[in-house]
Amino acid sequence: MRIPRFYVPQPFAVGQEVTLPDTTFRHAVQVLRLGVGEPLILFNGEGGEYVAHMSHISKRTASVLIDSFSAIDTESPVHLTLVQAVIKPDKMDFALQKAVELGVNTIQPLITQRSVVRIGKEQVDKKLLHWEGIVVAACEQSGRTRMPTVQAPLTLERWLETPLSGTRMILAPGDFPRINAMPADLPTPIALLIGPEGGFTGAEVETCVQAGVMPVSLGPRILRAETASSAALALLQHRFGDL
Ligand code: SAM
Keyword Glycosyltransferase: yes or no (predicted)? Predict the structure, then answer.
């Protein structure tokens, strides 16, 4: 049976007894019904993972004993940022989950002219918490050892003002070079912009190009935003990373 993995963002040491945070307790004990002596893996997002076993369980708390540290590294050599226009909530969740499985390091939600979903100032913190939850669950499931960051949403104009090294690409249907035909020595890190359900406007694509963002395509078929995101990230990981 696969040993369950839990993200617990705190420092650990071999031999240490750790009280599980409430959410981890609920997942490990109440959902997965782990019992005393059963193995589990903890990771804190700083690299590597800790093999542990349940040492004590009571009605409301549980502790684990850290048995060993494994310096396992499941991170890709290429640093990827997904700059994803905000799309409908279930589609956004899907795009983020797949992006984490595909090894992205940073997620930048983007507000664009055709964004249907609007996030009010008072909703930003709640949205970020929700997206971070998706990212944590995807890291736990996919064996990631470093936690990708989710940034607060920005407008396209604000994002273009952020200084970034490497290569920035905008994915837009049209007669643009294919994303999988990029030269092997393309400067990294790579930031990839994906549009909302209605796509980027022509003016947005033009503004990006003027700002030095490379327009790229995924071929003749129009993919849904969340499909485009997964397909493009898979191609980038294949070309420049470890897929
Ligand atoms: N009619 C819209 C347009 O022309 O942009 C379609 C938008 S598509 C549903 C959502 C996003 O997925 C696009 O903004 C783009 O980032 C990406 N996308 C989908 N299919 C694509 C393709 N064949 N080439 C490049 N990008 C694509």
Answer: no
